[in-house]
Structure formats: structure tokens, C-alpha cells
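Can't paste images in this forum, so I'm doing it all in text. The chain is below; anyone willing to post the predicted C-alpha cells underneath?
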Amino acid sequence: MIRLVLAEDQAMVRGALAALLRLEPDIDVVAEAGDGDSAWDAIATHAPDLLVTDIEMPGASGLDLALRLQQSGSATRVVILTTFARAGYLRRALDAGVRGYLLKDAPSEQLAQALRQVQRGARVIDPQLAVAAWGDDDPLTERERAVLRLAGEGMKTADIAQRLHLSPGTTRNYLSEAIGKLGAANRIEAWRTARAKGWL
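Text version of the structure:
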């Protein structure tokens, strides 16, 4: 029996996915979570074989959860199930040890089969995304990404500096580097470009 935690912030989608997966004789959805923090608590409580998670959720994202599991040495394998066909997300997911990356419009039978393959130790990636992932390298450093993400939320330079424990001058430098690397006119344009490519 494959025991899994399902993390998805849209209640209707989460309910439909859980119902479909529970129809499979060898899959047991042991917990459902509507945000990343609840998902982390469910993983700690149930120690599931798999975490099936969306990328963008309130609290910790699916990528954050994958990275935490990787760093903690957990045996729980991660499968991303998302609408975001962005190569940048896939690259970051693979770096975080994700074992499966599938799009939500895939047939439910395909999802169940992919989960079985991941449980057996295979890696399952949507073929179109696998090809796209290697064509567009992410130029941003982790610090540039963090600064740009907060700038995209509308935070001022001084507030970003305080949040990330940096000096305002260093924060401006990181923003300037990110803007330059992305060929953008300003921080908001840089944020939009990076987000569209899945780099944030």
C-alpha cells in the first residue's frame, strides 16, 4: 500500500484528487493539506511514502517542502502536481530531489501509474517539460531570487534589507544584478520575467 499526503490549496481540486486516488486499491491518502505548513505537519505525523503537492501554496511552497525533506534526509518522496509548465520550476524541483513532476491535466490513470513508479524508485517527469527544462538556464543566485521575490511583493529596498538581514546598499546591488541579468528596465519587470520562467 502506498501511503501519501496530498497538499493542494484549492479545496475542490484537492477533494477531487483525493477521491480519484482513493479509488486505487493500492493507494491510501492518509492526510490532506491546504497549505505548505499543514502539509509539513502531516508529513511529520504520518511519515508517508509520498508527498503529492502543488508548487504554489500559502505558507511553504511545494518546492520548499521538497527541499526541507531533502535536507532532513526523509524517506518521503515528492511528486509535484501542478498547472505550471515552467522549465525553471522543474529545474529547481530536480535540484530539491523531487522524484515526479506532472501536470494536472494528465489523466488520473497516468497519475496513479506515475505514483507507483516513483514508489518503486523511478523518476517520472512530464516529457514536454523535461525537454524544455534544459533550454533556459536560470541566471539568478539564491540571494538575488530572494531579494527579487520580495521586491515583486511591493516591498521597499530598506524593508527587504531588514527582512533578509542585509544592508540597504547590498540589497540594491542584488536588485541591480538581477535586473541586469534579466535584461529588465526595473525591478517589477525583472520580477515578472523571472516569475514567468519559473525562477522565483
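The mean pLDDT is 90. The radius of gyration is 18 Å.
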